[in-house]
Specification:
With 161 residues, the chain is α/β, with parallel strands linked by helices. Helix 2 runs parallel beside helix 3. The longest helix is centred in the last third of the chain and has 36 residues. The protein is globular, with a radius of gyration of 17 Å.
Length: 161
């Protein structure tokens, strides 16, 4: 659907590198609301309408962050989260569950399946943006750490030879 950085917003939040955010929700109004909330951030937004489509989009786009609804047809957000977090290739993708569920058991289940954070509907824009920026910072710091560790390992191997 929308695969663009909004014009004029490329430099806002410049402390964040260009990021890709996948919004997964079966309700188009929710998708549009989340897109509108994120328009001030320098992010590329992609969307999916259910869990199976979300897994396809993850393979195609390797997003930095997924805003994931829980209650969806074909595959729940819990199932998607569990699958992504159990795969070494996708486990570092940050997942923010966005849900109308607010029972303690649902929060515990979200935590057990590996979500990085969650926010309840109706979504507060300030809360969402704060959590999104924080999770994107974590994602990019992890990437920088991985690159640094790889570089150090290469230097160590060169010194051994």
């Amino acid at each position: 659907m929308a695969d663009t950085v909004p014009p004029g917003n490329q430099n806002s939040e410049s402390f964040l590198p260009q990021s890709t955010v996948l919004i997964v929700d079966d309700n188009q109004q929710n998708v549009e609301l989340l897109q509108a909330f994120l328009e001030s951030l320098p992010v590329k937004i992609i969307t999916a309408s259910d869990g199976l489509e979300a897994l396809e989009k993850v393979q195609q786009h390797n997003p930095d962050l997924i805003l994931l609804d829980i209650m969806m047809p074909r595959m729940s957000g819990f199932q998607v989260c569990r699958k992504l977090k159990s795969d070494a290739a996708t486990r570092d993708i940050q997942i923010l569950m966005v849900t109308a569920l607010n029972e303690l058991g649902d929060i515990e289940q979200a935590s057990e399946c590996g979500t990085d954070d969650f926010v309840s509907k109706p979504v507060n824009k300030f809360e969402l943006l704060t959590r999104v920026k924080s999770l994107l910072r974590v994602r990019h710091l992890k990437n920088e750490l991985e690159r640094a560790l790889t570089y150090l390992n290469e230097i160590e191997h060169e010194d051994e030879n």
